């Protein structure tokens, strides 16, 4: 199918715009698509939650069609009207459940379906698990399946002829005009020379326990390092109580100016237990690298598509706080190596993981699905 006029109409449907990784990735894409002459976008959000304030600043049309509960389907007629009135050439989902919910609308409207369902890369996708069912149901109806990592495509056994890897892209202007280090240190109560930080949600998929065990090992050996554990989630309170007597482990909770906080890091860390969770392309690691920080991470899913061992950082063994401790010590003892890794990381982001790169790959995909002519 080709289309005269050169403009492609895309409706993107997401379940929520909270502060998670998938929402940040979508926000970056919307910023990239905003103002394009060849693509018009309508964003439909299936909740009343918009926690990223930047969403409100977008000129892209936004419609909220809230679901009352997980089992609620009464919103579907309104969702159908919101999609049909836009007359999209492409309907794009942005979460696992949405990819299934919108299938009847995709079939009725006869639009091309871009199924951006894959954002992680589990070691094992359990048969008949919720995500397994969602992929098996939605893949046959998809004109394109998008993953942010090659590891994700492999993990979910997505059909190769339909699959596209479009890694996360980041808006590098986010890292301009940051709050100065002295002010951030004062706000957080950091008094040591060095700062090591991990930015992740406090839930089972992120291995804060290994990170914090490594932190206590380092603290026993040195008195010049503070550890930040940044984020929120169901496991946060228990870990705060566990480490409440350690003054050099700080739990700031959710941070709005995360770019300024990361800027005071000497090392950025993301520890993931691959037995529980496989990363796609983790946003926090992109942010570390964009700010010239050397990275310590575990080999979990798509992380090594981003972090190059001994070039932009160090890859550690899973569930091994001693390995993490040794890696931290090595980078702090070798500032020239750490600086080189940080600079190499920044260049890698500039070369492969920018907002323009991600946007252009999506635009290319849209035009493959809907060839246009003037």
Provide structural commentary.
By secondary structure, this protein is of the alpha/beta class. Helices cover 38% and strands 18% of the residues. It has helices at residues 21-33, 54-57, 76-84, 96-101, 103-109, 130-138, 150-155, 181-188, 208-221, 236-242, 258-262, 283-290, 321-333, 335-352, 355-369; strands spanning 3-4, 8-14, 39-45, 61-64, 90-93, 112-118, 144-147, 163-165, 194-199, 225-230, 249-253, 267-270, 295-298, 313-316, 372-373. The protein has a 7-stranded parallel sheet with strand order 4-3-2-5-6-7-8, with helices on both faces. Helix 12 links the parallel strand 12 (267-270) and strand 13 (295-298). Helix 1 crosses helix 15 (355-369) and helix 12 (283-290) packs across helix 14. The longest helix is centred in the last third of the chain and has 18 residues, at 335-352. The mean pLDDT is 95.
Give the SSE map:
Layout: E1 3-4, E2 8-14, H1 21-33, E3 39-45, H2 54-57, E4 61-64, H3 76-84, E5 90-93, H4 96-101, H5 103-109, E6 112-118, H6 130-138, E7 144-147, H7 150-155, E8 163-165, H8 181-188, E9 194-199, H9 208-221, E10 225-230, H10 236-242, E11 249-253, H11 258-262, E12 267-270, H12 283-290, E13 295-298, E14 313-316, H13 321-333, H14 335-352, H15 355-369, E15 372-373
Parallel strand pairs: 1-15, 2-3, 2-5, 3-4, 5-6, 6-7, 7-8, 9-10, 9-12, 10-11, 12-13, 13-14
Helix pairs in contact: 1-15, 9-13, 12-14
Summarize the structure.
This protein is of the alpha/beta class.
